[in-house]
């Protein structure tokens, strides 16, 4: 028997434990767990450690005691599935720990409603911010949620309604593993009004059959699919330019992206689609532009876009360090924006600048050069086919320079 045994336990307590798990508890001299788990063992005479707000210090205590004691830690369900197991393993070392899992609450929930879950996306909102999860919904037809008192099933449903995400069937499974466990079925609208849900719950969403066509991995949306400033229709990055610029940014699922001079927000929206586990900061000075970006964020359900109303470079000074920076507009401060962005950029990150006017092309080139940045430049000339009576002609878009660079892993300037 190893120095620390982590035992998964359900709401049914001792009844659901295996003989192996019960033996580990009986042999231990220290028992740790949440209050409700410890209450299942009133007869235990050794030292008890309550896992509550002081998780980190409690694990330090477990690490100290396991040098001369056998420690058993009680954890909900599977300790290595959104549980405390990861923290304990990191502190003590896997070679000193044995894990004895029980069915997780998520496994119990899917079993309760009789739906397979090997293809489900699991999202934990327990102790986490809600912002960003609506964007993740786009890519999945079946989702299980761990919730908490703030991010309750009703609060989640209200948030989904704000973004028009209502084509789902919701199942709320409560008090799983106990004698009073239940599973109830809701529409999103019904769930948003529900007020009698137990704090011990798991939420499952199943997308309606009529809405199961998932989006393309790489967005390729026409300008007409975005709200934009009228009559300033030019203040939106054309879709062909958008695709090449996004490719040049090399966005990862967890990237932090800055879109400076966001205009109508088309690059922000599509960057958020790619960085679905990250965040996109859309920086724009024009109040009308801010309203349009808000409209596009809502209509395209990209709730991981954070809108910053202000002028760069001042507005980007306190933003989280980016992995990708896109500069689409500069209001005359292009050199300062490039310099500030590059300095804040994480090592290995990418910066991409779109320049249309000869002045901006010259300024971007000279700024990269003066900073000693190894820049890549392409000149993009695109013509689109346009109908002319029974014929097809070409209509040219404005030529555009796309500057891009990678910040070295080892900075030299």
From TrEMBL:
Keywords: Cobalamin biosynthesis, Methyltransferase, S-adenosyl-L-methionine, Transferase. The gene is cbiE. Residues 251-351 form the TRM5/TYW2-like methyltransferase domain. Residues 4-191 form the Tetrapyrrole methylase domain. It comes from Leptospira fluminis. NCBIfam families: CbiE (TIGR02467), CbiT (TIGR02469). This is Precorrin-6y C5,15-methyltransferase (Decarboxylating) subunit CbiE. The lineage of its organism: Bacteria, Pseudomonadati, Spirochaetota, Spirochaetia, Leptospirales. The keyword DNA repair does not apply. PANTHER family: COBALT-PRECORRIN-6B C(15)-METHYLTRANSFERASE (DECARBOXYLATING), COBALT-PRECORRIN-7 C(5)-METHYLTRANSFERASE.
């Amino acid at each position: 028997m190893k120095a620390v045994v982590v035992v998964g336990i359900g709401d049914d307590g001792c009844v659901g434990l295996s003989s192996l798990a019960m033996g580990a508890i009986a042999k231990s001299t220290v028992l740790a767990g949440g209050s409700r788990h410890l209450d299942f063992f009133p007869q235990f005479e050794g030292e008890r450690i309550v896992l509550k707000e002081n998780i980190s210090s409690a694990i330090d205590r477990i690490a100290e005691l396991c040098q001369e004691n056998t420690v058993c830690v009680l954890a909900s369900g599977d300790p290595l599935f959104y549980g405390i197991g990861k923290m304990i393993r990191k502190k003590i070392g896997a070679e000193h720990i044995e894990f004895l899992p029980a069915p997780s609450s998520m496994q119990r929930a899917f079993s309760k409603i009789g739906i397979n879950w090997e293809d489900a996306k699991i999202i934990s909102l327990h102790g986490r911010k809600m912002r960003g999860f609506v964007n993740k919904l786009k890519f999945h037809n079946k989702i299980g949620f761990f919730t908490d008192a703030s991010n309750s099933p009703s609060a989640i449903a209200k948030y989904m309604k704000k973004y028009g995400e209502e084509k789902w069937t919701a199942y709320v499974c409560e008090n799983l593993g106990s004698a009073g466990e239940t599973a109830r079925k809701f529409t999103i609208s019904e769930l948003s009004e529900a007020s009698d849900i137990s704090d011990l719950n798991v939420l499952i969403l199943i997308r309606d059959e009529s809405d199961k066509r998932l989006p393309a991995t790489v967005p390729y949306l026409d300008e007409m699919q975005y709200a934009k400033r009228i009559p300033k229709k030019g203040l939106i990055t054309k879709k062909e330019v958008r695709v090449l610029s996004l490719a040049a940014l090399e966005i990862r699922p967890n990237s932090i992206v800055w879109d400076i001079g966001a205009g109508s927000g088309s690059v922000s929206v599509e960057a958020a689609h790619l960085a679905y586990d990250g965040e996109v900061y859309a920086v724009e000075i024009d109040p009308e532009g801010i309203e349009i970006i808000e409209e596009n964020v809502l209509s395209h359900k990209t709730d991981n876009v954070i809108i910053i109303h202000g002028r760069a470079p001042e507005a980007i000074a306190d933003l989280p360090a980016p992995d990708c920076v896109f500069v689409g507009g500069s209001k005359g401060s292009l050199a300062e924006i490039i310099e500030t962005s590059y300095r804040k950029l994480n090592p290995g990150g990418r910066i991409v600048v779109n320049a249309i006017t000869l002045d901006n092309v010259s300024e971007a080139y000279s700024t990269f050069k003066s900073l000693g940045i190894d820049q890549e430049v392409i000149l993009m000339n695109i013509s689109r086919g346009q109908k002319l009576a029974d014929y097809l002609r070409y209509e040219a878009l404005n030529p555009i320079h796309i500057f891009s660079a990678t910040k070295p892993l080892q900075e030299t300037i």
